[in-house]
Amino acid sequence: MHHFSGGMILVNTCEDPFGDLYPKGVWGEFKKRVSSEISRNVVALACFKGETRFFACTGVFIDYDDEYPKILTSASLIRDRNVPNKIVEDLRIDVWLPSKKCRVIGTLKHYSLHYNVAVVNVDNHHALCPMNLEKCPVNHHDSMLYKSTVVAVGRIFQSGTLMAASGKLTLGSSRLDCKVLWYSTCKISKVGIGGPLVDVDGNFIGMNFHRMCGNCQKIGTPYMYREDLCRILEFLKTKKTTEFSFGDTVRGDEKPINEWPVPDPYWCDPSDVEDDMNDKQEVVAGGCPVRYILGSKCVLK
Asked: Could you tell me which SUPFAM superfamilies the record lists for this protein (predicted)?
């Protein structure tokens, strides 16, 4: 939702919707059972210090351990904007639960500022059908997956509104520090940070982040693939050395850590607002596929 004052518009807030609101539009791509499960699993979270809200984003219940499901989200929720390698002190996490249509207190269980991942616990809440990150029929290296529709899901904290945007997986690399990132053409707002990227069968593909800088806007929305998330979560639980599939060792938050910039809200004239949701992603040039490598456009011939 955009806010207006004196003819100006506030953009880049944590309340800006994206895509199609549940159950319209892209939600028709899912079977009714799948869309219902997604609507019960996806939550909204906000970080407070006292009555001051620092950030709000999306999370999803996952089958995390033998106790009961936890919420997977982005560490942008808890990161101190002034000291990016620290979390907000004396924070409080509120969680909007769709099953109860109310807010409850969440507890920060694990986090990695380096990989921008956080796990939040809600006491005495048992999600009925949490997403399973390990037992998934989706093969990220299957070329057919890149031809299939994928969907990014988010939920607004203030209203509880659920939304989704569809797109395709796309190849590319950016200038972002983190190397454990892939990209999709799904266009989300800040609300969608920490939300799930799924296929039309509801299978979990990864967790979404924001298109934080100019070159990412050309490539697509970054996400972290489920297998890499599993390795990070395993490290957070056990602190045992483990490696990503490409050989790098999963590490902690010792310096230096990856940067994860998120755009701040700002006031501007409505005529200056670029209708990003209607932008057309360039995928071909002269009949040849286009790939962005470190933010630069390369034509594949």
From this structure: Trypsin-like serine proteases
Residue 118 C-beta-side C-alpha neighbours within 13 Å: 26
The pLDDT tens digits for 230-248 are 999 999 999 998 999 788 8
Element (H, E) at 291: strand 288-293
Question: How far apart are the C-alpha atoms of 169 and 133, rounded to whole Å?
Answer: 18
Closest among 272, 276, 221, 228 to 249, alpha carbons compared? 228
**What does DSSP assign to residue 264?**
P
Q: What does pTM read for this prediction?
A: 0.85
| Amino acid at the residue 158 | Q
Which CATH number is 3-131+148-238 given?
2.40.10.120
Does position 279 have pLDDT exceeding 50, yes or no?
no
The DSSP result for 180-246, as a single string, is: S-EEES----GGGTT-EEEETT--EEEEE----SHHHHHH-EEEEEHHHHHHHHHHHHH----B-TT
Query: Dihedral, CA atoms, 115, 63, 228, 199, nearest 10 degrees?
Result: -110
